[in-house]
Amino acid sequence: MNFFRNLDRFSFWIGFLAGTLTWWFISTVRPVLREARERLQENLQRWREGVTRGTEVRLRQDMLVYAQRSHVAASLCPLDALLIPPALLVPPVYALPEEEETFNAVGQVLPYLPDWPELGAVCNAPQIRLDDALSNGANIVIVGEAGYGKTVALAALASRMARQEALPPHLEGRLPLLIHVHDLPLDKAPLDAILEGLYTHTSLLTQAQLPKLLRTHIEHSLLLLDGLDELPPAQLEQAAGFLKRLLEAYPGIQVVTTATPRDYDGLTRLGFFPLAINTWNPSQQQAWLEKWRAMWHTLPQATEEVPDEILRGWLYTWRQHTTPLEYTVSMWALFAGDALGNTPLDALEAHVRRLYPQDKRAEMARRIWDTLTQGKDTDFTEVAEESTSSPQEDAKPKKTEPPQVVRQHPVFSAYLVTGHILENDLGEVLFGLPASPLKELVQQYYAAQADITPYLPDLLESREDPLLRDTLRVARWLRLTPREAAWRPTAMRVLAQNVQRATLPLGLRLRCVAALALSGDSGVGTLLARLMENPSPTLR
After folding, report:
1. What CATH code is carried by the domain that includes residue 117?
2. Residue 190 in contact with residue 182, Cβ under 8 Å?
3. Phi–psi pair at 16, nearest 5 degrees
4. Residue 309 and residue 164 share a domain
5. Integer Cα distance of 425 and 307 in angstroms
6. Residue 190 within any structural domain of the chain
7. Spatial separation of the C-alpha atoms in residues 144 and 277, rounded to whole Å
8. Is the pLDDT assigned to residue 42 strictly greater than 70?
9. Which whole-number Å values give the CA distances from 244 to 187, 235, 238, 357, in the listed order?
10. pLDDT tens digit string along 272-316?
């Protein structure tokens, strides 16, 4: 009680008023402080998103630049100037018992032949675009021979995704990561390997923030991995192991890669769907030629326009069944005025002469042979870069733009090393080497220029392989082989016999028919006409 008596009223009310005002101030200011803190966090988040967004924009631009250089005529024009939209063959769809089966007239007659798409191109078999094939989160392996346009298919999709134009809903917002397998350190962690692969084709400004961007966007990206079709079996197995680790660590990422028709088993075990790339039909060749003519007139070093009568005569004598790469280099030689003939080998020779002087050519051929005999993959990026730059350009200060990396196509590598093999009589060594995609390409060009009769018994007369893989491999070589080649009649006879073997599945016999048709031999029409008159419905 004495405490309250001694309490000064004035001090009491002053303290009471001060406490009340203090709590009123705190209760009033607290929402303001909370709002200010939230605004600060939002601004910080927007700043971070702005930095990430800026990095994403720069990455898309870098990918666009890289994609537009990913074609044979990159030294003349960007990809879009010559692009014929790539298409994939649609595999057969088997309806469930309760579903209505979709009728496909071509499919009723022509089986699905992913390793021989030429028949599908001529018969207008059903096709699908790569972006549509990626629906439902599918991972795709594009299957095709060298020079059929697998790299262009990846680059065309990467370009559209980089521009974010006309994309289906399942690809909207996804980051395109276009990388060549030779740029990937396959033994590293998946994210670190992808970062290192991207550094090859991105600017220094992009690289500074790229790790942060990928850590947040890797699950919403599309990896377009090129070059697996160039790898020997050991390296292909290593690449498949890398993809397995990638998909396990980041299940949201989608992947599109490439393979030859004979080497993609390791990818299908990972859930990849193999789709064959379709080759050009005559109308697509004509459409590409019109684009080429329009592009050629814009070049400062362009020669005089090729007269229409010369062009028509050339196309008349030109073999129609050529790969898009062969067609490109053949028209390039014609328009440049350095054509050596009207065969694919003549076009390749003209292109190689245009790229490399004789001493450089011999040196590269030896290097390719050394790597081929050692069972390694051949990646000659450094040599290609040297051949496309001058000492004055090398002396200039380095820019922050993406590096101009030029990678030699395996078709040119195979053609180069074939000359070395022919000059040094190394055919027997070649046929004894372990299997690899490069070896198959070299054998094709070797068979077109040398007599391989001693090796035919092992390739054509073996009945142990029910799929006739060696026989069909030799059948591919006929397309480039002169009609006077000594070994050609033997191979044609074996294929003709297989066509008439009723015990063989229809798919294998049609593959032999395709090989005979692509050979350009005048007697094939007579053979097929006789088969149409055969009383057996199986053969007819």
Report:
1. 3.40.50.300
2. no
3. -65, -45
4. no
5. 42
6. yes
7. 6
8. no
9. 12, 14, 10, 43
10. 999 999 999 888 998 999 999 999 988 887 666 777 777 766 676
Position 300 in a domain: yes
Q: Is 98 left (phi over 0), alpha (psi -120 to 50) or beta?
A: alpha
- DSSP letters spanning 348-398: HHHHHHHH--HHHHHHHHHHHHHHHHTT-----HHHHHHHT--HHHHTSPP
* 259 and 319 inside one domain: no
Are residues 79 and 59 part of one domain? yes
Of the candidates 224, 90, 221, which has an alpha carbon nearest to the alpha carbon of residue 157?
A: 224
| Burial (CB count within 10 angstroms: exposed 0-12, middle 13-18, buried 19+), residue 466 | exposed
Q: Are 250 and 333 in a shared domain?
A: no
Q: Decide which of 323, 355, 387 is a domain's last residue.
A: 355
Q: Name the domain boundary from 355, 377, 401.
A: 355
| Two structure tokens written together for 52 | 């990430």
Cα 326 to Cα 280, 343, 365, 490: the distances in Å are: 11, 9, 20, 26
HEC string for 63-108: HHHHHHCCCCCCCCCCHHHCCCCCCEECCCCCCCCCCCCCCCHHHH
* 86 contacts: CB under 8 Å, gap ≥ 6: 129, 130, 149, 152, 153, 156, 277, 278
DSSP lists the bridge partners of residue 274 as 141
The two structure tokens encoding residue 210: 């790229």
176: helix, strand or coil: strand
Q: What is the dihedral of CA 49, 54, 59, 62, to 10 degrees?
A: 170
In this structure, the answer to whether residues 115 and 262 fall within a common structural domain is yes
Q: How far apart are CA 501 and CA 509, in angstroms?
A: 8
pLDDT tens profile 166-220 = 889 999 999 999 999 999 999 999 999 999 999 999 999 899 899 999 999 999 9
- Which domain range does residue 463 map to? 455-540
Residue 273 parent element (H or E)? strand 273-276
- pTM of the predicted structure, to 2 decimals: 0.85
The amino acid present at 167, given as its one-letter code, is L
